[in-house]
Amino acid sequence: MKRLLTVLLSLAVLFSGLLFAEPGVFTDRVLIGTFQAMSGPAAIIGTSVAKGLNSYFNWINNNGGVHGRKIELLVADDQLNPSKTVVEVKRLVEQDKVFSIVAGLGTPGILAVMEYLETGKVPFVYQGGGHTSFAIPPKEYRFAVQPNYLTEGQIMAKYLIEDLGKKRIGIIYRTDDIGYDGLAGVEKWLKDNGHEKKLVGKFPVAIDRFAFDNEILNMMQLDVDAVIMYIFVPQTPAFLKQVKDYGMDAMLLANYANPDPTTITLSEGAAEGLRATAWVMGDVNDENFQKYISIYQESFPGEIPNAYAAAGFIAAEVFAEGLRRAGSEPTREKLVRALETMGGWNGLITPQLTYRQYDRTDSSCRIGVNRMYVMEVIEQVWTILTDWISLQ
Hints:
With about 400 residues, the chain is an alpha/beta fold. It is about 40% helix and about 15% strand. The strands form three sheets. The protein has a seven-stranded mixed β-sheet, with helices on both faces. Strands 3-4-5 form a three-stranded parallel β-sheet, sandwiched between helices. Strands 1-2 form a two-stranded parallel ribbon. Helix 2 (about 45-60) packs across helix 10. The radius of gyration is 22 Å and the shape is globular.
């Protein structure tokens, strides 16, 4: 009887598809998790990121998976609330036993769980935010993809000074980690290149502020010729409409969370001429971009993906490539080592990124994408304006 029970238990394990020892790895699938704002004020972002993730994974799964395994994604709704993020991520890791966390959304939530994941040696591939601490100092199990705000702030300053010759720059920024990071990047480049005096006004605003009369009037009094915007939707449309109402004549350059059709729609005509940094390739004439649209629409027929969906798609591309390189018997350690072999790698829409072997003294071994380009709203359409800009 004891032998029979042992055989039955072995068969149960076999047919469940479970491979012993490695969390989330089964004979027929790999189970991963993500945290997104699927409800609440930021749901327009979270649901879009989730669609991007699912569209690519659906396509992978419909074409045989990775080494014969499908990728199964569990989406936890944290409502962009870091307290909920902690609860949901612990559930994904400790109860659902996911293999990896992919594309968590929102700087506050990411900051709340990233050390927990690192301590638990759970690979965290793609953070939906650009806080510098996601990549610097580097952590072995954390792989950033998006440009960090410190780098972006430097690129924005470089573009305004070297490319456009601006002489009186103002910056409006959120009073959170994102805004402070962006401000630090702008100030760093200006200081390093002898242009400190060209930053004539700094305007911090709370993340729930939607009236900017005082800031705009002060900018006009300072006669700024360019304004760097480290604010997001829905603040961005409110700011743009008020700038238009006051008739302020300055070039506006927003950070990379803004170049999305939502910004244009909510701005009700006030976004014309707005410029923004970007890093996701969006050339509609490019063969790879057309394939991306085709893949996305296999899951969401007739729908045009927004920038947030593109972010999710990129996160899925990076993870799937790492899983492929990890081989037919993946482990978390093998995934980490596999991602480290991605030097100068491009996806369908993922711009070139490079990871290297983990070295805590190498601040760029987990940095991901480190160059950007500028877009402009021309006739109510986001249009690519420049080539890639880097700090080199």
